[in-house]
Amino acid sequence: MYRCVALLAHERGLDGRSAREAADLAATANIELSRTLPQKVRLNGEDVTTKIRTLEIGQLASELSVHSEVRRVLVGLQQQTIRMGGWILEGRDTTTVVAPDADLKVFLTASIEERARRRWVEIEARGESKRLQDVVRDVVERDHRDYSRADSPLALAEDAVIVETFGLTPEEVAERIVSIIPALFSWSEPSEN
Length: 193
Hints:
There is one protein chain. Helices cover 50% and strands 8% of the residues. A hairpin with a 2-residue loop joins β2 (41-43) and β3 (46-47). The chain is built from eight helices and five strands, in the order ααβββαααβααβα. By secondary structure, the chain is mainly α. α1 crosses α2 (19-28), α1 (2-11) packs across α3 (55-64) and α6 crosses α7.
């Protein structure tokens, strides 16, 4: 959702300091998240799944996310969406602000170098070009901004399960998370009988 607002802001020539304007865009945006895989994101009727994944939009989303007026609008929309149930959420304040009562909270972690390398591979796969050193710098800047913002800083929820993802494929990360569920909820596999 932050990326959608960043895309709208970018299209209107706004920057990361445009708090009030970005909050207004967030309040009037129609953001739809599909329940299918791969998930599609629609913004005001347009499929923006790919457009919102650029490094530039990610950086602008992080810059806009420091503003309380933007956060209030989007957290409200996120909480409204999840009231329906059945969602798996991801985000830097999801377990502490958006869904503090979630049944399972997972804190994914990897080194700055690993996260930057993954982002760089993603950028290269889209046919874009950026020096790896610049991607590392962007990751460090975003982390600093998200950990130090006054409103809803990135934090580890006390009851979150930490999953180290270094060297794992997305499928292996998903398997690790799924493996946590039975122990957390004392579920057991159904018997064959």
